[in-house]
Amino acid sequence: MALLEVDNLTVTFKTAAGPFVALDGISYRVDHREVLAIVGESGSGKSVAMLAIMGLLPSSATVRADRVLFEGHDMLAMTPRQRRQIIGKDIAMIFQEPMASLNPCFTVGYQIEEVLRYHMGMGRRARRTRAIELLDEVHIADPASRSRSFPHQMSGGQCQRAMIAMAIACRPKLLIADEPTTALDVTIQKQILELLLQLQAEEGMGMIIITHDMGVVAETADRVVVQYKGRKMEEASVLNLFESPRSPYTRGLLAALPENATGDRLPVVGDFVAADGVAPA
Amino acid sequence: MLRFLVSRLALIVPTFFGITVVAFLFPRLLRGDPVLLLAGERGVTPERYEQLVHQFGFDRPLVIQYLDYVWGLLGGDFGTSIATKNPVLYDFFSLFPATLELSFFAIAFAIIIGIPAGIIAAVRRGSLFDQAAMGVALVGYSMPIFWWGLLLVVVFSGMLGWTPIDGRINVRYFFDSVTGFMTIDALISGQRGAFSDAVRHLILPTIVLGTIPLAVIARQTRSAMLEVLGEDYVRTARAKGLPPRRVIGIHALRNALIPVVTTIGLQTGLLMGGAILTEHVFSWPGIGKWLLDSISSRDYPVVQGSLIIIALIVMLVNLLVDVLYGLINPGIRHRG
Ligand SMILES: Nc1ncnc2c1ncn2[C@@H]1O[C@H](COP(=O)(O)OP(=O)(O)OP(=O)(O)O)[C@@H](O)[C@H]1O
Ligand SMILES: [Mg+2]
Questions:
Q1: In terms of C-beta density within 10 A (0-12 exposed, 13-18 middle, 19 or more buried), how is residue A65 classed?
Q2: How far, in Å, CA of B6 to CA of B258, rounded?
Q3: Which end of chain B is more exposed for a tag (fewer CB within 10 A), N or C?
Q4: What is the pLDDT averaged over residues B75-87?
Q5: What pLDDT band is residue B335 in, cutting at 50, 70 and 90?
Q6: Could you tell me if the CB of A60 is within 6 A of ligand 1?
Q7: Phi, psi values for residue B2, rounded to 5°
Q8: Across chain B, what does the average pLDDT equal?
Q9: Nearest Cα to B27, choosing from B17, B15, B39, B18?
Q10: Residue B37 contacts by C-beta under 8 Å, 6 or more apart in sequence?
């Protein structure tokens, strides 16, 4: 049984200009201990898909799918209360803007402890100790005093580490990282990716990593889904994808990698659905 | 935090002196002889007049007079009421608790109803509740206090007889003033029915004085919540699997409260204006009524003194709000 199995997921937003189809029948599958990368340009529905799985889309969204199974349990059929027992615990998520994703009014320690309190029922003292351990696990220096810091007192990289500490607090089976490094400096990006991979290997988590960056895909993923305008263009193992990309869109993405660029201009990825009439994979 | 406080205090000092200038010039700007106005005496003989001019120091240069006046203020000398012959400050302290009690109830009323209403309206944006609450708030916001007070008195005291017409407590009850707060003193007195009578007297004035702050707080809470509910950290709180009451009541509200507390503070500062009218409608013996009465009886030392004191109260309330704002907003606390 797969860890996560999403079949034919469709998300439609009610907007002032009429219904907007953000996801058009997309399917994903993540196995235990597997790292799936989802790539695709801005607006291709990567975040919407993850939020739909977590049940976090606003009420203006209509989510339909043949099934969204996590460890065999149908996430869409669950009551909100049942879903809340899974998200934050067995499925955890980290976001693109680490600074904005932490609540400015509470200390980092408090925000980590919250997860321990609600999902593990841990007592005050045990929570505090565990929160500091977790900060240590994500390599934050001086974790005890950092746990008393507010987000604005930390750097973006440290905030993302704290978010990761929060996400792994209950030893999740699936970690969803939505562009976890996009907002960070290049050197910090590398450190955060290394941390995620190290934790993924140690904990044996399944992981979905969303990125624009083919370089990140190459370094982290086992399998890749290439997404475009709410549809899946291609799905392949990382090796196959880089060696023999099937869809022209993917070829475009790969050509856009800096090391493949010819001359001093980067190639641009065009509108492939319209231009080539490529059917989604 | 300390620097923050000092900078705020530094703002208060010039404002205070500005107001003392206004208060100082006040009797001198009015038509009529300030000497006679301040003396409040009738049929003054020329000798007595000279004596008064000297007594008030009007024969000295204006600047000296002003400095003398301010020096007196700093020493707590706000002059003597012509009507009661008491020091102005003494009368102030005996009347202030009534205003404080009314203001406290009015703001508490506005907060206890306004914040939850604003939260529910934001969470159920566009719902019937939201539309109804915001419609009512719009009306309440522009409610003329005087008219509103009279309307409530006519309906609830006059026609229905549910609430007393004026005053703080029925004359049936008599006890010494300990704290000056009628509700507390009534409890202390132990007299049967005194407390509930004091509360019944508070109901209409509280509603009248609390209506505008209630409307403003409800609207501010709603808009602050709407803004905060779209923030990334609220999504994070949801993604953690926290129950909605925690996501909304702790994570969102804690941030939304920052502008709301400012609003509450501003409204508390503005409360004095409404209190003057409310106290007038309900014959509430507080400093608002004191000020109005002193104007109509031309008790100028009281007019001057109450003006300065009320201005001071407003400034202190605003200072308090700034401090509170710093306390609930860690960003400011650490920078400041
Ligand atoms: N609440 C919403 N209401 C209406 N449309 C939305 C909403 N959220 C997302 N969308 C639309 O859905 C589409 C997909 O958005 P999504 O955020 O999933 O893109 P993405 O692939 O994550 O892009 P990025 O790489 O920029 O994060 C976009 O066109 C976006 O405008
Ligand atoms: Mg996104």
A1: buried
A2: 21
A3: N
A4: 87
A5: very low
A6: yes
A7: -65, -45
A8: 87
A9: B39
A10: B27, B30, B298, B300
Which residue type occupies B130?
Answer: D
Residue by residue, DSSP assigns B203-218 as: HHHHHHHHHHHHHHHH
In this predicted structure, the answer to whether residue B37 has a pLDDT above a threshold of 80 is no
Q: Which CATH superfamily is domain B88-296 in?
A: MetI-like (1.10.3720.10)
d(CA B104, CA B271): 10
Distance separating alpha carbons of residues B222 and B216, to the nearest angstrom: 10
* Mean pLDDT confidence for B200-218: 95
Kindly list the domain boundaries of chain B, sorted by start residue: 88-296
Residue B262 tokens read as 């400012």
Task: Give mean pLDDT, residues B38-52.
Answer: 78
Please list every residue in chain B whose beta carbon sits closer than 8 Å to the beta carbon of residue A153.
334
Listed in sequence order, the residues at least 6 apart from B211 whose beta carbon sits closer than 8 Å to its beta carbon are B110, B140, B143, B145, B148
3-state secondary structure of A175: strand
Q: Which residues of chain A have pLDDT under 70?
A: 256-281
Percent of chain B with pLDDT strictly greater than 70 = 95
pLDDT reported for residue A280: 45
pLDDT at B106: 96
CB-side neighbour CA atoms (13 Å) of A272: 24
**How confident is the model at residue A259, as a pLDDT?**
60
Where are any strands of DSSP class E within chain A? 4-15, 18-30, 35-39, 61-64, 67-70, 73-74, 91-94, 174-178, 206-211, 223-228, 231-237
Q: What is the pLDDT averaged over residues B230-244?
A: 96
Average pLDDT over residues B6-20: 85
Signed CA dihedral, B14, B19, B20, B22: sign only = positive
User: Which H or E run includes B20?
Assistant: helix B2-29
**Parallel, antiparallel, or unpaired: how do β-strands A4-15 and A67-70 relate?**
antiparallel
3-class state of residue A17 by DSSP: coil
pTM beyond 0.90: the answer is no
Tokens (6 digits) for A251: 């070829």
Tokens of A245: 């990309």
Give A31's DSSP letter. -
The ligand that comes nearest to the alpha carbon of residue A51 is 1
Q: Is the CB of A42 under 6 A from ligand 1?
A: yes
Span B130-159, average pLDDT: 92
How far apart are alpha carbons B206 and B106 in whole angstroms?
Answer: 5
Taking alpha carbons only, the member of A162, A168, A170 closest to residue A109 is A162
d(CA B293, CA B275): 14
* A50 Cα nearest atom in ligand 1: 18
Question: Mutate which of A53, A59, A101 to disrupt the B interface (most B C-beta within 10 Å)?
Answer: A101
Sheet harboring A231-237: ordered strands across?
A91-94, A174-178, A206-211, A35-39, A223-228, A231-237
Q: How far is the CA of A153 from the centre of ligand 2 (A)?
A: 26
A86 touches chain B (CB under 8 A): yes
